[in-house]
Amino acid sequence: xxxxxxxxxxxEDEKAFDEHYFNVHGPITAKIxxxxxxxxxxxxNSVMGGKPPYYLMCEMIYxxxxxxxxxxxxxxxxxxxxxxxxxxxxLVTLIIGEDA
Length: 100
Known about the structure:
Layout: E1 2-8, H1 14-30, E2 37-42, E3 56-62, H2 65-73, H3 75-88, E4 92-98
Helix pairs in contact: 1-3
């Protein structure tokens, strides 16, 4: 399994972020070919106390690195990336990993 993980810092306007993320961006991303599963986690607390460093995480799970790469190169993957940069380009960190 290969994963593309998106970590989002806290937005200034959480309500507007959530509205766009869950009603626009999520549905665009869900259409990417080869995407097996998409898990979204909204962080609520930090174990060390205080506000967690990230607001939200999305794990996008693919069969393997090749499927992930092909998904990102697809029209749907490009549309997701374009939308991401339009509303959260300064908030998001994208990382790729594989199950150990």
